[in-house]
Write a structure and sequence with these properties.
Two copies of one chain form a homodimer. Chain A has about 150 residues and is α+β, with helices and mostly antiparallel strands. Chain A contains six helices and five strands. Chain A has two domains: about 90 residues, Orthogonal Bundle (Arc Repressor Mutant, subunit A); about 55 residues, Ferric-uptake regulator, C-terminal dimerisarion domain (Dna Ligase, domain 1, 2-Layer Sandwich), CATH 3.30.1490. The first copy, chain A, has a three-stranded mixed sheet with strand order 4-3-5. The longest helix of chain A has 16 residues. Chain A starts with a helix and ends with a helix. The structure holds a DNA duplex (25 and 25 nucleotides).
DNA sequence: ATTAGTGCAAAACGTTTGCAACATT
DNA sequence: AATGTTGCAAACGTTTTGCACTAAT
């Protein structure tokens, strides 16, 4: 679950935070690690629960504040849909597609990277006079296990 | 602001609702018209305010209920981002890209239709074993007037 | 010693719901 | 007359905020 690439991103990210004079409190480190390590795009509630096992007094507010911080730094992607309870992607902060299962709620990343997306974004931007700084491509449907007859 | 195409969609939509035994109350008609007519992707609050001028007693709850109804029927697209206050597109309920200005909040539709999106969605779906039923492509950046130096 | 961060409780926000009164069919 | 719809107010769940306390530097 914690490959070398993920761990080096964790270190680099913590270093970037420290370099800005931000304090690396145990809670903060735990939240960041959780965010960078997990690939299930957790909710704030799920992150909080996970942190509690190691730091039982951690408050929800702290989780929210830390996420807010990381969002500002562009280190985390917020995936909010119409519904309540945003989910977060701290593994790959650059825009990339997401596959959302409308039955079980699972969110996964597509197996292959997708270069066309940026091109497409640029082209649409050019036609409209917008200058694009980010984009989102979300695909809704049934994941393989929810498709399967049971 | 109300071209022929938009108006015929309005009629068709109202017909579809009536055909299901739903009642065409004045409030409902007003909300639907507003939703189909406007191209600025309004919030619930904005819709409510617009309805109030003709029907001063209309409640927010009624606006929410009507939108919920239309969403269920696939007649309206809900555009929720991380932030609060979803916005709605009742002109083109089929998935299409949206350009969101991160400075002034304007949401606009790209000038040209974009066929590649569906292809791309299908391809990613195939690679991942998902069966896609809907998708969303949102582009964030600065609109032409917010880009312009003042 | 400083000063940023924590944790609690309360507030804010958009949205949903229950229900009695009402209006469309 | 029957029943779907309205409008109010209260409830909901998530997220934000204020502030005294704590801990990292």
């Amino acid at each position: 679950m914690s490959d070398t690439c993920t761990l080096s991103r964790l270190d680099a990210l913590l270093g970037r935070l420290k370099a800005q004079g931000l304090r690396l409190t145990p809670q903060r480190v735990a939240i960041v690690r959780e965010l960078v390590t997990r690939c299930d795009h957790p909710t704030v509630e799920q992150l909080h629960k996970a942190i509690l096992t190691a730091f039982p007094t951690t408050s929800l507010a702290t989780v929210y504040k830390t996420i807010h911080l990381l969002k500002e730094q562009g280190e985390v992607l917020e995936l909010g849909f119409g519904e309540l309870g945003s989910r977060y992607d701290g593994r790959r902060p650059e825009p990339h597609p997401h596959l959302i299962c409308t039955r079980c709620g699972a969110i996964s990343d597509p197996p292959a990277a997708c270069a066309e997306l940026n091109e497409l974004a640029e082209r649409l931007a050019g036609q409209s006079g917008f200058s694009i700084s980010a984009h989102r491509f979300d695909l809704f449907g049934l994941c393989p296990s929810c498709r399967a007859p049971r």
